[in-house]
């Protein structure tokens, strides 16, 4: 029993903390929004549930019983009409406020979630568990859980207020009626149990929902459209979708009977039993004992029915709150994630030296290390080529340098200081990068190049110079909208696309638009043919004079033009020197270059 009690206590404490966090988020992202919800629900519940159907009816029947005058009746109706008008006005005003502030709330919350998403460690994107947390966090927005939470919480407040007045009235008539209605506590308990089961069910379904959404997404994405139409991969994806759907159906079925049973218990004790018993008792007093006034008999039926509705709604709302705060708990867990890759307080100065000293690294979950005792040193102004076959550790070298990951052992030194002591952002600002898995966004050319909005004439000049340096300026200016062309037609019918090589040149233009100390180009010409590749490297070297440049490639066009070449194999440097030195040594580099050179000649013959 003790472990169960401890577990239950922890769960209750977590629920309470998640609720406080939900309230905090609501207040921070949209002040007064929760208050507006409270006013809306209170105006409805209290006016309808007590003033209109109990107080007004009671006073009206008393006037009839005592033979009141028309003037008294008219005054009562006017007071009631005024109260109704005030309640309706409150409802309309707060409802309008809620509608206008909801966008503001979602904007602020989305901004927080997206900001956190780009701050987390790169390793998170290779962790399915993290993706599940991320998805559950974003469901606050996509699943409308915020509205559900505030609505439920407002219902609890308004329902409790109305319930207190109803209880006071019922006690004034006959306290015994409350004993009959006390069975409604089963509704609250059943609601809490249902909410708990619902949260557990949703958590189990999350990875399968993500799998299902992935299949749905890929069917509509252009990047996958050719393979979908020219292979049987669609059938495989369809099978994945069916598996996800069937698995979630099994999960729903597993919890469905329990939820149905609890709903039945809740319905019986919350509706049928208390109403029947209360009506029978009131009828007994009115008909048999004849000690209940007709006004009290008529109104007590309505009061009991309304109190029953209040208790039922409270049970459902408490259950709903427990479920919704669990989603806010997921959000809290995601937002509280602390990056393992952290920076220091030191600001990065201009690059003088960069050194890897006995660096070892293995990706999470991988059995084989990607880097093993890697050591190399780069001086300011050098043009370096890092070459090797696929899987040699070249891209991992870049990821560690950019602080996407930290080494398992060894040191990376920037100007003789461990790279961990520098502020990460200040370090990355010294860098310009072009990645092999380049991406062009559905934005204008200038925005793609500058990676921000183009606002001034200087921005336009910078973008134009960068496009020229990357060798893509003429192609861009030949488009009808020039540098204001939007890529893809997803958001603009005048949008356009580029070939793979042109996209890569556009991404290279981002480097030239940035003020940097040294550049890292990871397979910057993978989409180009050998001749275009060589020309691109010549342009890059010309444009990056007096800059430190690191080329990462398994193709060796860049190596010939570099000051020094590092040959990677199995995560270590196996050769180092200039092109001529390594060719003379007759080692791995010589073998790779000779093979590639012969393939380039074969391609030239086939073209001619």
If you had to describe this structure to a student in words, what would you say it looks like?
- The protein is an alpha/beta fold and 608 residues long.
- The longest helix has 57 residues, at 233-289.
- It has three domains: 2-335, ABC transporter transmembrane region fold (Up-down Bundle); 346-430 and 517-608, 3-Layer(aba) Sandwich (Rossmann fold); 439-515, P-loop containing nucleotide triphosphate hydrolases (Rossmann fold).
- The chain has helices spanning 2-29, 33-66, 70-119, 128-142, 145-173, 176-181, 185-220, 222-230, 233-289, 294-335, 394-401, 424-429, 445-450, 457-469, 473-477, 500-512, 530-543, 557-560, 579-585, 588-607; strands at 353-361, 371-379, 383-387, 409-414, 417-418, 431-434, 518-522, 548-553, 564-569, 572-577.
- The model is unreliable at 602-608 (pLDDT under 50).
- It has a six-stranded mixed beta sheet, with helices on both faces.
- The radius of gyration is 35 Å and the shape is elongated.
Q: Largest beta sheet, briefly?
A: 6 strands, mixed
Overall average residue pLDDT: 79
Portion of residues within helices? 55-70%
Query: What is the name of the CATH superfamily of the largest domain?
Result: ABC transporter type 1, transmembrane domain
Termini separation: 84 Å
Number of DSSP strands? 10
Total of domains: 3
CATH class call of the largest domain = Mainly Alpha
**Number of separate helices:** 20
How would the global form be characterised? elongated
- Rg estimate, integer Å: 35 Å
Segments where pLDDT lies below 50 for 5+ residues?
602-608
